[in-house]
Design brief:
With 249 residues, the protein is of the alpha/beta class. It is 29% helix and 28% strand. The strands form three sheets. It has a nine-stranded mixed beta sheet, sandwiched between helices. It is globular and about 65 Å long.
Length: 249
């Protein structure tokens, strides 16, 4: 079974982002970039499934500028077999991502698509659900466990009240949650091997996809700064402040 895995290039999770002075977005100049953590979990899951014998080929896919090749090489070093970069200078929005993956699914005929549940830059959490709707495939979001058995997938997903277990027929769209696995470290030998793996570069026009943004960002602003905490002498003072100053009780 072939698996398609989405890989997004985002600002490194350890970096404190800065908002541009004109409020048009986040400043990414000279900022360390990395693979979206949820996408990293998706790649790791595909590699583990291949190691277990339920997957025959892993294709990593990224959408964006030529810099995304670096992120794809990381996916290849983790264990993906080949990569596809859909190169565009347009702002990449969820519907466009779903349409690109739909076109690639029709071309590649995978049995499973694994995406991160969301990207840490825009937090949209939409692409997987949109892709499922466009393809007419079952979807399993926020998965914390997945096992393939024949033409079916046994899934455990996280919900507000605990865990939900599902059985879904393949082909399937799945989105990963944090507890699905812990991604492996990429070793230097695997980084060297990844340089020789195939990386295809195509344009959205070749897939018949219009990448024009449908959403417009009005403004981006930093959250209000938190005020410093205060120490209280005893419980009585704490209750008094909560009751008369904060007015939460």
């Amino acid at each position: 079974m072939k698996v398609l895995v989405g890989v997004k290039r985002v600002v490194d999770a350890n970096i404190k982002v800065r908002v541009k002075s004109d409020g048009s977005g986040v400043d990414t100049a000279n900022v360390k970039m990395a693979m979206n953590p949820f996408c990293e979990i998706a790649v790791e899951q595909a590699v583990r499934m291949k190691e277990a014998g339920s997957v025959s080929e892993i294709v990593a896919v990224s959408i964006g500028g030529p810099q995304c090749q670096e992120t794809l090489r990381t996916a290849l070093a983790m264990g993906a077999d080949r990569a596809i970069l859909v190169e565009t200078s347009e702002e990449v929005q969820p519907l466009a991502v779903a349409k690109v993956f739909k076109a690639l699914c029709e071309k590649e005929q995978p049995g499973l698509v694994i995406l991160g549940k969301q990207a840490i830059d825009d937090d949209n959490n939409q692409s997987g659900q949109m892709l499922s709707a466009l393809l007419g495939w079952p979807q399993a979001t926020f998965i914390s466990k997945i096992e393939i058995s024949g033409e079916q997938a046994q899934i455990t997903r996280e919900i507000d009240g605990g865990l939900e277990q599902l059985t879904a027929k393949l082909p399937l769209v799945a989105t990963t949650d944090l507890r699905l696995n812990e991604p492996r470290y990429v070793t230097l030998p695997n980084i060297m091997k990844a340089k020789k793996k195939p990386l295809e570069n195509i344009k959205p026009d070749q897939l018949g996809v219009d990448m024009a943004p449908r959403l417009k960002t009005v403004t981006v602003a930093e959250p209000p700064k938190r005020s410093a905490g205060v120490k209280v002498a005893d419980v009585a003072e704490l209750v008094d402040k909560l009751k008369n100053e904060v007015r939460v009780i």
